[in-house]
Amino acid sequence: MEQEGVSIKVAGGLKGAVRVASFDATVGELRAEVARLLGLSDPCSVKLIAGGRNLLDDAKALRAYNLTASSRVLVTKGAAAHSADVAGAEAAAGAEEVRTAKLERLRAAADRMAARGDGRGLTDRYEFSLE
To answer: Per-residue pLDDT for 75 more than 90?
Structure first.
């Protein structure tokens, strides 16, 4: 009797293929299945990489990472590697948002100064700095 679902080829810490229900299955489901096959009790200690991208978001569908039947996923294992990667990615995203907001405020100030009607906009010396 043939198993239902799709096979995803894996390499690295686990070789062969891992079966999941479909490409609509989540990264978390794939991570849990890989951890089970490796005999690990903590799925968070499994790191998954496909197409050069870390599969960090356990809630995302495999399809969202463009995984297909011909995809190969690299499996590595370590102590809570996944949760550290997620924390680092969230911190980087927060820092990028702050930087973007500062740049938008700086541009708005420069635009207002350039639009001044009193002739002082571009003749005065101004120093801008991003902290």
So the answer is: yes
